[in-house]
Protein backbone atom coordinates (compact mmCIF):
# COMPACT_ATOMS: atom_id res chain seq x y z
CA UNK A 1 0.00 0.00 0.00
CA UNK A 2 1.56 3.27 -1.12
CA UNK A 3 1.68 6.18 1.29
CA UNK A 4 1.20 9.68 -0.09
CA UNK A 5 3.42 12.61 0.82
CA UNK A 6 2.93 14.40 4.11
CA UNK A 7 1.31 17.74 3.37
CA UNK A 8 0.75 20.71 5.66
CA UNK A 9 -2.87 21.73 5.37
CA UNK A 10 -2.47 25.30 6.59
CA UNK A 11 0.17 25.98 3.92
CA UNK A 12 -2.10 24.53 1.25
CA UNK A 13 -5.01 26.69 2.40
CA UNK A 14 -2.90 29.85 2.43
CA UNK A 15 -1.63 29.14 -1.09
CA UNK A 16 -5.20 28.55 -2.32
CA UNK A 17 -6.20 31.95 -0.95
CA UNK A 18 -3.18 33.56 -2.62
CA UNK A 19 -4.12 31.91 -5.92
CA UNK A 20 -7.70 33.13 -5.62
CA UNK A 21 -6.64 36.72 -5.05
CA UNK A 22 -4.16 36.55 -7.91
CA UNK A 23 -6.81 35.17 -10.28
CA UNK A 24 -9.21 38.07 -9.62
CA UNK A 25 -9.12 41.36 -11.49
CA UNK A 26 -10.61 43.18 -8.51
CA UNK A 27 -10.05 43.11 -4.72
CA UNK A 28 -11.60 40.01 -3.13
CA UNK A 29 -13.42 40.06 0.20
CA UNK A 30 -12.67 37.62 2.98
CA UNK A 31 -16.18 36.19 2.74
CA UNK A 32 -15.80 35.52 -0.99
CA UNK A 33 -12.43 33.88 -0.39
CA UNK A 34 -13.84 31.71 2.40
CA UNK A 35 -16.71 30.55 0.16
CA UNK A 36 -14.44 29.83 -2.77
CA UNK A 37 -11.95 27.87 -0.67
CA UNK A 38 -14.71 26.21 1.38
CA UNK A 39 -13.11 27.39 4.62
CA UNK A 40 -14.60 28.68 7.85
CA UNK A 41 -14.57 32.47 7.88
CA UNK A 42 -12.52 32.58 11.10
CA UNK A 43 -9.83 30.35 9.57
CA UNK A 44 -9.81 32.50 6.44
CA UNK A 45 -9.26 35.66 8.48
CA UNK A 46 -6.32 34.06 10.35
CA UNK A 47 -4.65 33.04 7.09
CA UNK A 48 -5.30 36.43 5.46
CA UNK A 49 -3.81 38.30 8.43
CA UNK A 50 -0.66 36.19 8.14
CA UNK A 51 -0.37 36.76 4.38
CA UNK A 52 -0.86 40.51 4.87
CA UNK A 53 1.72 40.60 7.67
CA UNK A 54 4.29 38.85 5.47
CA UNK A 55 3.63 41.17 2.53
CA UNK A 56 2.05 38.65 0.15
CA UNK A 57 -1.35 40.35 0.32
CA UNK A 58 -2.58 43.89 0.95
CA UNK A 59 -5.90 44.74 2.56
CA UNK A 60 -7.90 47.50 0.88
CA UNK A 61 -11.26 48.90 1.88
CA UNK A 62 -13.10 46.59 -0.51
CA UNK A 63 -10.99 43.44 -0.20
CA UNK A 64 -7.57 41.89 -0.66
CA UNK A 65 -5.03 42.31 -3.47
CA UNK A 66 -1.56 40.91 -4.08
CA UNK A 67 1.23 42.46 -2.00
CA UNK A 68 4.74 43.64 -2.78
CA UNK A 69 6.33 40.32 -1.86
CA UNK A 70 4.59 38.68 -4.81
CA UNK A 71 6.23 41.21 -7.13
CA UNK A 72 9.59 40.48 -5.50
CA UNK A 73 9.07 36.77 -6.11
CA UNK A 74 8.32 37.44 -9.76
CA UNK A 75 11.51 39.48 -10.10
CA UNK A 76 13.58 36.80 -8.42
CA UNK A 77 11.99 34.08 -10.51
CA UNK A 78 12.82 35.91 -13.74
CA UNK A 79 16.41 36.18 -12.60
CA UNK A 80 16.53 32.51 -11.62
CA UNK A 81 15.22 31.62 -15.06
CA UNK A 82 18.09 33.61 -16.59
CA UNK A 83 20.85 32.02 -14.51
CA UNK A 84 21.16 28.91 -16.73
CA UNK A 85 21.98 31.29 -19.61
CA UNK A 86 24.17 33.67 -17.63
CA UNK A 87 26.26 31.24 -15.61
CA UNK A 88 28.00 29.66 -18.66
CA UNK A 89 29.01 33.18 -19.71
CA UNK A 90 30.51 33.87 -16.29
CA UNK A 91 32.20 30.46 -16.26
CA UNK A 92 33.79 31.12 -19.66
CA UNK A 93 34.94 34.56 -18.46
CA UNK A 94 36.49 33.03 -15.34
CA UNK A 95 38.40 30.47 -17.40
CA UNK A 96 39.50 32.98 -20.05
CA UNK A 97 40.76 35.64 -17.64
CA UNK A 98 41.78 33.41 -14.75
CA UNK A 99 39.76 35.24 -12.12
CA UNK A 100 36.45 34.88 -10.29
CA UNK A 101 33.48 36.31 -12.22
CA UNK A 102 30.54 38.23 -10.76
CA UNK A 103 27.14 39.56 -11.80
CA UNK A 104 25.78 42.44 -9.72
CA UNK A 105 22.52 44.36 -10.09
CA UNK A 106 20.95 47.52 -8.74
CA UNK A 107 17.62 46.46 -7.26
CA UNK A 108 15.31 48.85 -5.44
CA UNK A 109 17.91 51.09 -3.84
CA UNK A 110 20.57 48.45 -3.25
CA UNK A 111 23.54 47.00 -5.09
CA UNK A 112 23.51 43.23 -4.85
CA UNK A 113 25.79 40.45 -6.10
CA UNK A 114 23.41 37.93 -7.65
CA UNK A 115 25.89 35.36 -8.95
CA UNK A 116 29.53 34.40 -8.44
CA UNK A 117 31.50 31.86 -10.46
CA UNK A 118 34.86 30.99 -8.93
CA UNK A 119 37.04 27.89 -8.61
CA UNK A 120 39.96 26.35 -6.70
CA UNK A 121 42.49 28.41 -8.66
CA UNK A 122 40.27 31.48 -8.95
CA UNK A 123 38.80 32.14 -5.50
CA UNK A 124 36.24 34.89 -5.06
CA UNK A 125 36.96 37.91 -2.89
CA UNK A 126 36.26 37.59 0.81
CA UNK A 127 33.40 40.10 1.09
CA UNK A 128 34.28 41.14 4.60
CA UNK A 129 32.38 44.41 4.18
CA UNK A 130 28.88 44.27 2.70
CA UNK A 131 28.46 45.14 -0.96
CA UNK A 132 25.96 47.87 -0.15
CA UNK A 133 28.45 49.65 2.13
CA UNK A 134 31.40 49.31 -0.25
CA UNK A 135 30.14 50.35 -3.69
CA UNK A 136 32.64 53.22 -3.77
CA UNK A 137 35.52 50.75 -3.26
CA UNK A 138 34.61 48.08 -5.83
CA UNK A 139 34.77 48.15 -9.60
CA UNK A 140 31.25 46.78 -10.03
CA UNK A 141 29.92 49.25 -7.45
CA UNK A 142 31.48 52.20 -9.26
CA UNK A 143 30.25 50.81 -12.55
CA UNK A 144 26.65 50.69 -11.29
CA UNK A 145 26.90 54.12 -9.63
CA UNK A 146 28.02 55.57 -12.95
CA UNK A 147 24.83 54.25 -14.58
CA UNK A 148 22.55 56.05 -12.11
CA UNK A 149 21.33 59.53 -12.91
CA UNK A 150 22.69 62.43 -10.85
CA UNK A 151 19.79 62.37 -8.37
CA UNK A 152 19.95 58.61 -7.94
CA UNK A 153 23.69 58.68 -7.32
CA UNK A 154 23.33 61.58 -4.88
CA UNK A 155 20.62 59.73 -2.95
CA UNK A 156 22.68 56.55 -2.83
CA UNK A 157 25.82 58.27 -1.59
CA UNK A 158 23.83 60.29 0.96
CA UNK A 159 22.66 57.05 2.53
CA UNK A 160 26.00 55.23 2.44
CA UNK A 161 29.22 56.55 3.93
CA UNK A 162 32.44 56.29 1.93
CA UNK A 163 34.13 53.98 4.41
CA UNK A 164 37.92 53.92 4.53
CA UNK A 165 38.64 50.23 3.82
CA UNK A 166 42.28 50.41 2.70
CA UNK A 167 44.85 53.19 2.17
CA UNK A 168 43.73 53.25 -1.49
CA UNK A 169 39.98 53.69 -0.91
CA UNK A 170 38.35 56.84 -2.29
CA UNK A 171 36.61 58.55 0.63
CA UNK A 172 36.00 61.99 -0.90
CA UNK A 173 32.65 62.20 -2.73
CA UNK A 174 33.99 64.84 -5.13
CA UNK A 175 36.94 62.66 -6.12
CA UNK A 176 34.62 59.68 -6.57
CA UNK A 177 32.28 61.71 -8.77
CA UNK A 178 35.25 62.79 -10.89
CA UNK A 179 36.39 59.18 -11.31
CA UNK A 180 32.89 58.06 -12.25
CA UNK A 181 32.62 60.76 -14.92
CA UNK A 182 36.01 59.83 -16.41
CA UNK A 183 35.22 56.15 -16.98
CA UNK A 184 32.76 55.20 -19.71
CA UNK A 185 32.94 51.43 -20.06
CA UNK A 186 35.53 49.61 -17.92
CA UNK A 187 35.92 50.44 -14.24
CA UNK A 188 38.56 49.15 -11.89
CA UNK A 189 39.66 49.09 -8.31
CA UNK A 190 43.19 48.23 -7.30
CA UNK A 191 43.37 47.33 -3.61
CA UNK A 192 40.58 49.81 -2.82
CA UNK A 193 38.41 47.13 -1.22
CA UNK A 194 41.01 44.58 -0.14
CA UNK A 195 44.80 44.74 -0.17
CA UNK A 196 46.30 42.39 -2.74
CA UNK A 197 43.11 42.22 -4.81
CA UNK A 198 41.99 44.08 -7.93
CA UNK A 199 38.72 44.10 -9.85
CA UNK A 200 37.51 45.10 -13.31
CA UNK A 201 33.86 45.69 -14.25
CA UNK A 202 31.79 46.79 -17.21
CA UNK A 203 28.07 47.68 -17.40
CA UNK A 204 25.18 45.40 -18.25
CA UNK A 205 22.97 47.35 -20.64
CA UNK A 206 19.37 46.21 -21.09
CA UNK A 207 15.92 47.84 -20.71
CA UNK A 208 15.08 48.27 -17.04
CA UNK A 209 18.39 46.75 -15.89
CA UNK A 210 21.29 48.46 -14.15
CA UNK A 211 24.11 46.04 -13.46
CA UNK A 212 27.70 45.03 -14.04
CA UNK A 213 29.80 42.01 -14.90
CA UNK A 214 33.10 41.93 -13.02
CA UNK A 215 36.22 39.86 -12.45
CA UNK A 216 38.56 39.81 -9.47
CA UNK A 217 42.20 38.78 -9.52
CA UNK A 218 45.46 39.42 -7.66
CA UNK A 219 46.39 43.09 -7.92
CA UNK A 220 49.74 42.38 -9.61
CA UNK A 221 47.81 40.95 -12.60
CA UNK A 222 45.60 44.00 -13.15
CA UNK A 223 47.75 45.57 -15.87
CA UNK A 224 47.87 42.35 -17.89
CA UNK A 225 44.11 41.66 -17.69
CA UNK A 226 42.38 41.92 -21.07
CA UNK A 227 39.23 44.09 -20.73
CA UNK A 228 37.85 42.91 -24.08
CA UNK A 229 37.04 39.50 -22.57
CA UNK A 230 35.04 41.24 -19.88
CA UNK A 231 33.22 43.41 -22.42
CA UNK A 232 32.26 40.39 -24.54
CA UNK A 233 30.85 38.67 -21.47
CA UNK A 234 28.89 41.79 -20.52
CA UNK A 235 27.44 42.03 -24.02
CA UNK A 236 26.24 38.42 -23.84
CA UNK A 237 24.67 38.96 -20.41
CA UNK A 238 23.02 42.16 -21.66
CA UNK A 239 21.48 40.26 -24.59
CA UNK A 240 20.12 37.61 -22.22
CA UNK A 241 18.38 40.29 -20.13
CA UNK A 242 17.13 42.14 -23.21
CA UNK A 243 15.45 39.01 -24.59
CA UNK A 244 13.38 38.67 -21.42
CA UNK A 245 12.36 42.32 -21.07
From TrEMBL:
Chain ranges of the HTH iclR-type domain: 8-68
Keyword Transcription listed = yes
Keywords in alphabetical order, please: DNA-binding, Transcription, Transcription regulation
Q: Its domain of life?
A: Bacteria
Tell me where in this chain the IclR-ED domain is found: 64-245
Question: Where exactly are the transmembrane stretches of this chain?
Answer: none
Q: What PANTHER family is this protein classified in?
A: HELIX-TURN-HELIX TRANSCRIPTIONAL REGULATOR, ICLR FAMILY (PTHR30136), HTH-TYPE TRANSCRIPTIONAL REPRESSOR ALLR (PTHR30136:SF24)
Recorded protein name is: IclR family transcriptional regulator
Amino acid sequence: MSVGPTLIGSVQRALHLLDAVGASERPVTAKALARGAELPLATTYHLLRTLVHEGYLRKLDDGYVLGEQVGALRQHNSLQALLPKIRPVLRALRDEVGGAAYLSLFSGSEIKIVDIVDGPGTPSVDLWVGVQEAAHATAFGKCILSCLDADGRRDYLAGNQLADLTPHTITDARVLEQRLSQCTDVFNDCEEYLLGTACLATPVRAPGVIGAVAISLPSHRLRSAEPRSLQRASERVSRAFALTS
